[in-house]
Amino acid sequence: MASEIAVRAATITTWLEEIAISVEAERDHLTQLDAAIGDGDHGVNMSRGFEAVGKAVAGQGDSVPPGQLLILTGKTLVSTVGGASGPLWGTAFRRAGRTLGKEPEFDAAQLADALDAAVAGVQELGAAEPNDKTMVDALLPACAVYRDGLEAGDGIEKALEAAAEAAEEGALATVPLQARKGRASYLGERSIGHQDPGATSAALIIAALERAVQRAG
Amino acid sequence: MEVATTQMKKLLNDPAEVVKESLTGLAAAHGDLLRYDADAQIVVRADAPIEGKVALVSGGGSGHEPLHGGFVGKGMLDAACPGEVFTSPVPEQMLAATKAVDGGAGVVHIVKNYTGDVMNFKLAAEEAADEGIDVESVLIDDDVAVQDSLYTAGRRGVGATVLAEKIAGAAADRGDEVASVAAIAKRVNEQARSYGVAVSSCIPPAAGKPIFDLPDGEMEVGIGIHGEPGRSREPLGSAADIAGLMVDAVVTDLKPKEGTKVLPFVNGMGGTPQLELYLLYGEVEDRLRDAGLDPVRRLVGSYITSLEMAGASLTLLALDDELTTLWDAPVHTPALRWGE
Q: Rg of the Cα trace of chain A?
């Protein structure tokens, strides 16, 4: 496994900034996707949450361990996003943070563990399985592809690039699916033909991680 | 001050502040019954906590007014936790509300079955339990338009929420303990079914445009309360047709025995006038009698709404003597008031 690049708190801060920019830029798109099969507030809620995360993280010094920053991110999302996305993303970031603990930096393999823990937390709380047309459809392939990349000897940047692509493909692959979890499931067959907003924002978050690590590298 | 022109014409200052400003007004109008804690973003009974009484807390996204804040007062809710429009509140709100109203006898959370509400209330209940407060949660899932199966999030909580809050509130008032109050709320949910129809969409203030387009001559059947599209789109029927559709849907699912005493609740979605709701109620009552049922209590009005959506829902509750007595018990809240 290639674990040459260590990830530090600064990279996490960059990741969170990249997410905030990306979610804000895609706010209307996410909201449109949500209006089609949900209630049209996903973009607004995610944007509000990551803006609050930015403020919460800005108050932290450079010496805060990356894991602690992620736990703070999770707590902030739970208390600002609301809906289902708040508890789900809150749990994801908290689990990732707990996995990383209080170490000042972590490597590519530890990142794989953190990402797996995040998705496991989401599945535990939301009880979503693959192909239920949820954020899990973007996150699970991203985690798998990232880990495969590391095992094939890829560096963290290349593995994350592939993970971001897998997340994007996973989000696009939700279009023909019938929703079986969340508000879109109320539509039954009418949910078919629309891209899942949760999977879409999940892909944005993985892509932001790729950019953050590239910028640090 | 200039207000951006969009498709909506609403009485707003800043769309982002709509919930807070509305709650401020609610408290100004009903200071004798409730207060608004803006920091915690909760509405609390003016005289809470009441020593020895089980407290009722509910909450959910805003945009369904008068639910839930309008039901805070004597004989109903002790606190309400309003989220942003159509967005679940966050656990901190439910925890703050639970602590504010706990009179030592425990707290019942009445939770509408939506993924977000369920998760946020679950996190809050766990935290409250950690702090030594006895919390029982009751899930309301009465909407027969949603197939309850492994393949959906389960039935939505709609009109039965209002009935459960009133009836469980009366049970708490008469001195029932926490398990009993929760059991009564569950019984209301088990004995109630709902079905809704929309003839127009609604406009969330932050979005500024309708959630869906509903062409002239069409109606959305099997709707929820968040502007989400329904199960299907049908040609717009007469009130008699719509009443028939609603009664069929709830009776088929509830399967009440012939002669069952029932409480039909015809609810406006926010944009349908009382004139039409009573007209619809008349049609509903006829059909219930035709189905061999015996309406002995009624509720007609806009109590669980979807902003300015035009349309209505029918909730049918099969009554027993105890539920009827609790329904008749005095209530004094901004939106429901009778007795004493």
A: 16
CA distance B29 to B73: 13
Chains A & B: contacts with CB separation below 8 Å: 105
Q: Most distant CA pair in chain A: distance in Å? A: 50
- Return the number of other C-beta atoms located less than 10 Å from residue A144's C-beta: 17
**Domain region containing A85:** 7-216
The answer to whether B260 and B245 have CB atoms below 8 angstroms apart is: no
Active-site position among B30, B64, B68, B109: B64
Angle between helices B321-328 and B160-173 (to 10 degrees): 80
**Is there a contact between A40 and B114 if contact means CB atoms under 8 Å apart?**
no
Residue A19's CATH number? 1.25.40.340
What ipTM was reported for this prediction? 0.76
* pLDDT above 60 for B2: no
- What is the domain count for chain A? 1
Q: Kind of pairing, strands B107-112 and B135-140?
A: parallel
Taking CB atoms and an 8 Å cutoff, what residues of chain B touch A190? Answer: 229, 231-232
- Nearest-by-CA chain B residue for A31: B207
- Residue numbers in A near B206 (CB within 8 A): 41, 44
In angstroms, the separation between the Cα of residue B228 and the nearest Cα of chain A is 5
Architecture of domain B15-191: 3-Layer(aba) Sandwich (3.40)
Record: contact B152-A185, CB cut-off 8 A: yes
Please identify, in words, the CATH class of the domain defined by B192-319: alpha beta
B68 is catalytic: no
Domain edges within chain B: 15-191, 192-319
pTM over 0.95: no
Residue B64 annotated as catalytic:
yes
Burial string for B126-149 (b: 16+ CB within 10 Å, else e) reads: ebbeeeebbbbbbbbbbbbbbeee
- DSSP structure string for A127-149: ---TTSSSTHHHHHHHHHHHHHH
pLDDT tens digits, A88-125: 999 999 999 999 999 999 999 999 999 999 999 999 99
Q: Which residues of B touch A80 (CB under 8 A)?
A: 90
Domain membership flag for residue A81:
yes
